[in-house]
Amino acid sequence: MSRIEKVSEFIKMELADIILRKVRDDRVGFVTITDVVISKDLRVAKIYCSTFGDEKSRQKTVNGLNQATGFIRHELSQRVTFKFVPELRFFSDDSLERGTRILSKLKEIEKQRETKNISENKKRNKKSK
To answer: With a threshold of 0.85, does the pTM exceed it?
Structure first.
């Protein structure tokens, strides 16, 4: 695991704790940090987060997190020993939702195939009698 990957994972864990325990903004509900991508110079961190709700509520949460960036960055600075605390940028991550939709579609296709196979088997059985 590279240094950037280690720093990314560490920041991911710390941000999840800070958001859960310290951020007191009504716009920020239940948030899952799905990924942290840090620039090679460790100056900028893109934080991808997943939340429940519709697009409007997700955007509201991301806006709340971006407005609380100064506070979150200060809290992070208390927990890390880096020379620089990266600039934080929050983004909505809908990959979990997309994955759920894809799985649902795949299950639907599988069910249609099973139904088609059952009906074809019934037709074959009738013809063979």
So the answer is: no
Do 69 and 88 lie in one domain? The reply is yes
The verdict on 22 and 67 lying in the same domain is yes
Domain of 124, in residue numbers: 95-129
The CA distances from residue 126 to 113, 120, 121, in Å, are 20, 10, 9
> Residue 76 has which token pair?
């992070």
Taken as a whole, the chain contains a residue count of: 129
pLDDT by residue, tens only, the chain of 129 residues: 888 899 999 999 999 999 999 998 888 878 889 999 999 999 999 999 988 778 888 889 999 999 999 999 999 999 988 888 999 999 998 776 777 778 888 888 888 888 877 777 777 777 665
Q: In whole angstroms, what separates CA 84 from the centre of its chain?
A: 25
Residues 62, 34 share a domain: yes
